[in-house]
Write a structure and sequence with these properties.
The protein has 289 residues and is α+β, with helices and mostly antiparallel strands. Helices cover 35% and strands 24% of the residues. The longest helix is centred in the first third of the chain and has 40 residues. The protein is elongated and about 105 Å long. A hairpin with a 6-residue loop joins strand 1 and strand 2. The strands form 2 sheets. Strands 3, 4, 5, 6, 7, 8, 9, 10, 11 and 12 form a 10-stranded antiparallel β-sheet that branches. A two-stranded antiparallel ribbon has the order 1-2. It has 4 domains: 54 residues, no CATH class; 43 residues; 32 residues, no CATH class; 109 residues, Distorted Sandwich (Glucose Permease (Domain IIA)).
């Protein structure tokens, strides 16, 4: 019974209101007052803490305040590069698994006395497609005459079609995933490709090596003069395999991407820049990655 009385008394004291007032020192006149209880003070404090917590949560989620904290950007970049490396590994594992499944299927067919079938994609011929849905126009007729005539753009002539394609086709310098795209307004004059450490870097076209330099930010940089006033700059190489003045062929080895670094340093992605007539151009407009 004594415990119950103590609990009841404590509960009454928790919700019993007190008078908080301000009085003048000179004459003791009351200027302001309000009624408070310990329960209302506790509720006000808890509400204030919850409001501050939600405000901080919104500030962190919808503003770049974390970017101002020292060390956060470096950690975020390392996490991003680690994610890119894991994606590349998963993609490589998927290709290996597909090859293994195809190999196992072929072995099973051979053991069953059947002939394995190669998986090929049938090529489509656009010249045999129906043109009924396309309304003829003067520009369309002129273009069709160039493509179906006897000129160099004749789609029916295999040699002419091969010559046109080879004149504008560039090969991919390295296998990987594009992490940063071409954006002049943001100061990016090329594209960044996340690759495997020490991966092969090949020439996108025939050309001549005109410069090889090294910088702490971009590692070894290789500048190659290609045809049609096209200059390619290969950045973040571990060490180039060619020298200045050397003539190279399309697909020839130029060097290797940056080696795998320690966990405390950022992994540098391979960077490719293309300059046409002294102006930067988007490599994705010339190369299919």
């Amino acid at each position: 019974m004594k415990l119950i009385r103590n609990i009841t008394a404590f509960w009454q004291q928790l919700f019993r209101k007190r008078r908080l007032s301000l009085t003048r020192v000179t004459d003791g006149t009351e200027e302001w007052h309000m009624h408070l209880s310990p329960a209302s003070i506790i509720a006000t404090a808890v509400s204030f803490v919850l409001v501050m917590f939600f405000l901080m949560l919104i500030l962190v989620a919808y503003s770049p305040v974390l970017e101002m904290l020292p060390g956060f950007r470096t950690e975020a970049n390392r996490s991003r590069e680690s994610l890119m490396q894991n994606i590349i590994r998963l993609d490589s594992m998927e290709r290996v698994m597909n090859d293994m499944m195809t190999y196992n299927e072929n072995i099973a067919m051979i053991m069953a006395g059947k002939s394995p079938v190669a998986r090929t994609v049938q090529a489509s011929d656009s010249t045999r497609q129906s043109k009924i849905l396309v309304m003829p126009s003067a520009e369309d007729s002129l273009l069709r005459a160039q493509m179906e005539g006897e000129g160099p753009y004749n789609l029916q002539h295999d040699a002419a079609r091969r010559a046109v394609r080879e004149a504008i086709e560039l090969i991919t310098p390295v296998e990987g995933i594009i992490t940063e795209r071409f954006a002049i307004e943001e100061g990016r004059f090329g594209i960044a490709i996340a690759t495997q450490p020490a991966d092969r870097v090949t020439a996108i076209d025939d050309g001549t090596v005109i410069a090889t330099i090294w910088s702490p930010d971009m590692g070894h940089q290789l500048t190659v003069q290609h045809r049609n006033n096209l200059v390619a700059i290969y950045k973040n190489l571990s060490e180039p395999s060619v020298s200045v003045g050397q003539s190279i062929r399309s697909g020839e080895l130029l060097g290797y991407t940056a080696l795998e670094q320690s966990s405390k340093e950022e992994v540098k992605a391979f960077v490719l820049e293309l300059w046409s007539d002294g102006k930067p151009v988007d490599p994705e407009g010339y190369i299919v990655f």
